[in-house]
Write a structure and sequence with these properties.
- The structure is a single chain.
- Strand 10 and strand 11 form a beta hairpin.
- Helix 1 runs parallel beside helix 5 and helix 8 packs parallel to helix 13.
- This protein is 40% helix and 26% strand.
- It is built from 13 helices and 17 strands.
């Protein structure tokens, strides 16, 4: 079975509000084996909302609306759903009386406008709301179920768990949804898709999604089967060849980000790491320390933005800077070696480059970066030429540095 979620309210279309309700509902529906195929946010517009409900019930078995059940004139969910189903709204005296009693318990006088919450769509079942003043509604229409839930998250979650889940469990046929998350770095999204498309395009189930965020790529394989065992077997059938093609470009199979994975590897090896940064200005150190417990392996770092600070804090020989420049393989190696020497860490990473928008006096193009690594085996430096704005270049460089350390530790 498929489901659609409609979040109602013009406030949800502003940059200050995020629709967290749909995330909770999606997780609960997935646990039942229901796939959420569409989500949308509709403002306080009766005509648009009516049209959205009509389209949703024409193609999905479960439609859930959150919000728009309050007492004010802009709370239009009841009216819009009634319009979409061509049903009347009926006033329920028992609901109105219950609202009055609830206000009395709060030592408040109920405003006349609150009686709008006592209107129920014809044929709907009322869903009690023990955490708020307005009830939800459950409506069945031509094989589809339309559920109206309150917008406040604590009310929605309680109502869905207590009133809706038991009903849905009786309606939803047994179905298991299982997902594999692979996280990949060190390649472009287009290269990734070209490599693995011959595998996943053979299958409609599982569904494959590739997501790109900065230099981090995610592959989601989502299988829907009658049992968990069948879903796991299908995922293994598809994920196995993909993993062989990608090899060590895959750094996580459980969704953990690269800084968490690298931290786990350092902890397992009882190793430590330090950093020496120039163009990233502390971003790499932030990646390490954003992980709880990173004090187990992160020693500290240096932000050496000028040549003078590279010489004074890291001991980079002046002649290297004079001969090769601050943005060079030789300087990156000297920075990494200096950071390791000064901190006594097992590994040391260094970053030097030009993040833009101007070269800042360096004789290399914007986007030129070098990442150095020093350990007991010696030093090395890797060069990359990134494109994009300052933030993108710095973000990609930090991801690159973490991946270089991951591969070195392997």
């Amino acid at each position: 079975m498929n489901a659609e979620i409609i979040a109602v309210g013009s406030e949800m279309l502003t940059p200050e509000r995020v629709d967290t309700n749909s995330l909770h509902l999606t997780a609960e529906l997935n646990n039942l084996g229901v796939e959420v195929v569409t989500k949308c946010v509709i403002g306080d517009d009766r005509e648009r909302l009516t049209d959205a409900v009509r389209r949703a019930i024409s193609r999905s078995e479960i439609v859930i609306l959150s919000g728009g059940l309050g007492p004010t004139e802009d709370d239009l969910t009841r009216e819009a759903v009634a319009d979409a189903l061509d049903r009347k709204l009926l006033f329920r005296d028992d609901i109105a009386d219950g609202l009055e009693r609830r206000f009395a318990q709060m030592k408040r006088k109920m405003a006349e406008i609150n009686k709008r919450q006592a209107f129920v769509i014809g044929g709907a079942d009322v869903l009690p709301n023990d955490r708020g003043t307005f009830p939800g509604q459950w409506v069945e229409e031509s094989g589809a179920v339309i559920i109206l839930l309150p917008g406040p998250p604590h009310e929605l979650k309680a109502m869905f768990e207590r009133q809706c889940l038991p009903r849905l469990k009786r309606l939803v046929p047994p179905l298991a949804i299982r997902t594999v998350f692979l996280r990949v770095t060190g390649m472009a999204e287009s290269d990734l898709d070209q490599l693995i498309a011959p595998v996943y395009t053979k299958y409609r189930n599982p569904v494959t999604t590739i997501l790109a965020a900065g230099s981090d790529l995610q592959i989601h394989l989502r299988a829907r089967c009658g049992t968990i065992a069948e879903a796991d077997a299908l995922l293994a059938e598809v994920a196995g060849p993909i993993e062989l093609l990608l090899g060590d470009r895959i750094y996580s199979r459980n969704g953990d980000p690269l800084d968490v994975v690298v931290g786990q590897m350092l902890r397992k090896q009882h190793a430590t790491v330090s950093v020496a940064e120039s163009c990233t200005g502390g971003m790499l150190g932030e990646r390490f320390t954003a992980v709880p417990g990173s004090s187990d392996y992160f020693v500290g770092g240096f932000i050496t933005y000028t040549r003078e600070m590279k010489i004074e804090l890291l001991g980079v020989p002046p002649e290297i800077l004079q001969q090769f420049g601050a943005v060079s393989q030789e300087t990156a190696e000297a920075m990494a070696a200096g950071a390791r020497r000064r901190t006594g860490s097992t590994y040391a990473l260094s970053i030097t480059g030009v993040a833009g928008p101007k070269a800042g006096g360096e004789s290399v193009p914007v986007g030129t970066v070098y990442v150095g690594l020093a350990d007991a085996a010696g030093v090395l430096a890797v060069h990359r030429q990134f494109i994009g704005d300052r933030t993108r270049i710095r973000t990609f460089t930090c991801q690159m540095a973490l991946d270089i350390l991951r591969r070195r530790m392997k």
